[in-house]
């Protein structure tokens, strides 16, 4: 199950589907779970994001207490039915991000090797530490270096080396810069549907293997 907590609602767009509602309608109880969940592919369900999540943030803020558990309470009955629940967050820090950190157990942080984002990563680690006081099981499990550019090898490698020195085994094999990764969403296709042999697909396959520990997912 894929849950999109971003007001941009890109997850549904990238999969080429148009659910009538999604996470916002589930959290406000306008839709039941069956109505809010959309089957995007065989074995892939999505709770879509979108503009209506802005209202949900206000709803969370108005609660006298327990606002940070809004997401967990809505999903607690069903998440055991899925092998993996993947939550996509918005950039930045808002009431929904805090809700996600009170819901998930493992964090995967994509880091661009194009820009010096180590500082942003450091401050995110501090924010996570402040939540960990209440949720000791929360763990930054994977850091995924992205946009590895072999043409500007030196710059990419310097940032990658710094990441590895700081975060050691948490750092996964980098995802190379690959144009087809940005084309696939325009066709509503995943990279595995659009260009399964491309470098970008191979790099993401490797990441999926690392996370799931399964070799045969793509056969
Ligand atoms: N390795 C890559 N090579 C080329 N293009 C990529 C690569 N990784 C991601 N992209 C493209 O870069 C764009 C931004 O990626 P993505 O939407 O995953 O970023 P994001 O961090 O979720 O952005 P936001 O913070 O706005 O939610 C997308 O068009 C995506 O297809
Ligand atoms: Mg995003």
Q: What would you say this structure looks like, in words?
A:
It is a single chain. The protein has 219 residues and is α/β, with parallel strands linked by helices. The protein has 2 domains: 2-179, Rossmann fold (3-Layer(aba) Sandwich), CATH 3.40.50.300; 180-214, no CATH class. It is 41% helix and 13% strand. It is built from 11 helices and 6 strands. It has helices at 10-14, 23-27, 33-36, 53-62, 70-75, 95-101, 118-132, 153-167, 179-183, 191-194, 199-212, and strands spanning 2-4, 38-41, 44-47, 86-88, 106-112, 139-146. Strands 2-3-1-4 form a 4-stranded mixed beta sheet. Strands 5-6 form a two-stranded parallel ribbon. Strand 5, helix 7 (118-132) and strand 6 form a beta-alpha-beta unit. The longest helix is centred in the middle third of the chain and has 15 residues, at 118-132. The relative contact order is 0.11. Adenosine-5'-triphosphate binds at residues 6, 10, 91, 146-147, 175, 177-179, 181-182, 185, 200.
CATH level 3 topology of the largest domain: Rossmann fold
Number of domain modules: 2
Largest sheet: 4 strands, mixed
Estimate percent helicity.
Answer: 40-55%
Contiguous low-pLDDT stretches (5 residues minimum) are: none
Query: Rough shape?
Result: globular
Radius of gyration: 18 Å
Number of strands: 6
CATH architecture of the largest domain: 3-Layer(aba) Sandwich
The CATH homologous superfamily of the largest domain is named P-loop containing nucleotide triphosphate hydrolases
Computed structural class: alpha/beta
Number of helices: 11
> What small-molecule ligands were found?
adenosine-5'-triphosphate, magnesium ion
Q: What's the CATH first level of the largest domain?
A: Alpha Beta
Helices and strands, in order, run as: EHHHEEHHEHEHEHHHH
> What's the average pLDDT?
94
Give the terminus-to-terminus CA distance: 21 Å
Q: How much beta, percentage-wise?
A: 5-15%
């Amino acid at each position: 199950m894929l849950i999109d907590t971003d007001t941009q609602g890109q997850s549904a767009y990238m999969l080429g589907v148009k659910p009538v509602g999604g996470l916002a309608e589930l959290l406000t109880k306008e839709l039941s779970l069956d109505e809010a969940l959309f089957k995007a592919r065989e074995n892939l369900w999505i709770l879509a994001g979108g503009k209506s999540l802005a209202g949900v943030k206000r709803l969370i803020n108005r609660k006298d207490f327990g606002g940070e558990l809004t997401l967990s309470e809505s999903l607690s009955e069903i998440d055991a039915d899925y092998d993996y629940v993947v939550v996509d967050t918005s950039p930045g820090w808002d009431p929904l991000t805090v809700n996600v950190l009170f819901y998930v157990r493992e964090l995967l942080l994509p880091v661009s090797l194009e820009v010096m984002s180590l500082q942003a990563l450091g401050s995110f680690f501090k924010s996570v530490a402040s939540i960990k006081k209440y949720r000791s099981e929360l763990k930054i499990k994977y850091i995924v270096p992205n946009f590895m550019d072999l043409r500007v090898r030196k710059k990419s490698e310097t940032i990658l080396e710094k990441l590895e020195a700081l975060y050691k085994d948490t750092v996964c094999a980098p995802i190379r810069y690959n144009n087809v990764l940005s084309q696939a969403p325009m066709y509503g296709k995943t990279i595995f549907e659009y260009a399964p042999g491309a470098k970008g697909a191979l790099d993401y396959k490797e990441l999926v293997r690392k996370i799931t520990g399964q070799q045969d997912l793509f056969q």
